[in-house]
Known about the structure:
Elements: H1 23-45, E1 55-58, E2 62-68, E3 71-77, E4 80-83, E5 89-95, E6 99-109, E7 115-127, H2 132-139, H3 143-161, H4 165-171, H5 176-191, E8 195-202, H6 209-307, H7 310-323, H8 333-338, H9 340-348, E9 357-360, E10 371-374
Antiparallel strand pairs: 1-4, 2-3, 2-5, 6-7, 7-8, 9-10
Helix pairs in contact: 3-5
Amino acid sequence: MDPNQQxxxxxxxxxxxxxxxxxxDSSAILFVLxxxxxxxxxxxxxxxxxxxxxxxxxxxxxxxxYWRGGALLKTITDPxxxxxxxxxxxxxxxxxxxxxxxVRDIPCGTKGGVMINxxxxxxxxxxxxxxxYETLLNYGVQYDxxxxxxxxxxxINQFCSSHSLQEVYIDVFDQIDEQMKEALQGDCTRxxxxxxxxxxxVTKPTIPESIRRNFEQMEEERxxxxxxxxxxxxxxxxxxxxxxxxxxxxxxxxxxxxxxMEQKLTEKDSxxxxxxxDNQMYTAREMSLADADFYKVxxxxxxNKLKLTPQFLELKFIDAxxxxxxxxxxxxxxxxxxxxxxxxxxxxxxxxxSKEVSVEANSEGGEDNPEVQTx
Length: 375
C-alpha cells in the first residue's frame, strides 16, 4: 500500500506534529542572533557615549587619554580602536598635531584712551605628545583656554595700553605678531612646556569711524606728498641726466679738440724736425762745399807757392815785357832789357824795388802812340 495514499476517514491537509528533539535548534539560532545584535549595538551605538561604550576609536593626529573615577590615568593610546571599561573609565581624544585657535572680538584701549577691537587673532600651536599627561594633569583638556585664549586677551590689552593709536594701527602693527608669539611662548615655556607656539596672525583692528576717516585723509595727504616727492625726483633725475649728457658732450668735444690739437702739434713737430733735418743736411752740405773750396784754395796756394820760383817769375816777367810794344823804364831804357844784373836783382829782391811800373796800352791812340808813366 502507498504511504502517500490518503486513508479513508482522515481529513486532508492535516498538520503533522513537530518531531521530537527540534526545540534545541531554535534556541541556538535565537542566541546567535541576540549575540550578533549585542555586538552590533556595542560597536555602532554605544561608542557615541564615551561613558558606557566598551569599544572606542582614537582618530589620526590624536592620542587617547583616560580618566577612572575622575583621576587622570597615565595610559595614553595611539590612533585606532581600543577597549575600556564602560561606566568606569572616561575617554577623551587630544590633538597632538598642528592646530589653529581663533580668538575673536578682543577689545582694548590705546594709550590715548581710544577703544579699538581686534576681530580675529589666529594662534597656530601644537601640544607635544610626550607632555600630554603633564599638561592635562595641570591644566585639563581645555588647556588652550588658559594659555592661548585668555593669554591673548591679556597680551593685547597690555600692548595697546603702552602704545598710541597711531602706533597700534600703523607704525608698529607689523610687530604685533612677533611680540604676541614671544609673549605666549615665554609663559608656555615656563609653565606649560608641552605647548609650542608656531605662529600668531593678527588682523587689522577696528577703530572709530571718525578716526578712520582722519587716517584716510592723512594717508591721502601722505600719498600726495609722496607723489610730489617722486615727481621732484623724476625732474631731478631728468635734469641730472641732461647735465650728464651735456657734460658728456662737452667732454667728447674737448677730447676731440684735444686730439685734433695733438694731431696738429704732432704735425708741426714733425715739420719742425724735418726742417731741422733739412737745415742740418744743408749746413753739412755747405760745410762740405766750404771745406772743399778751402781745400781747393789751400791746394792752389800750395801749388802757386811751389810755382813761384825765380825761374817762373823770370819767365812771367819776360812774357809781360814781351806783350808790350814799348817800354819806358827810367833813364836807362836800353840798359833795362840788356842789363842782366838789373834783371837778376829784380828777380832776387822784389821787395827792394822803389819804383812801380805801370804800363797802360792806349787802345784809342793805336799802337803808334803808347803812353809810359813813371812813378
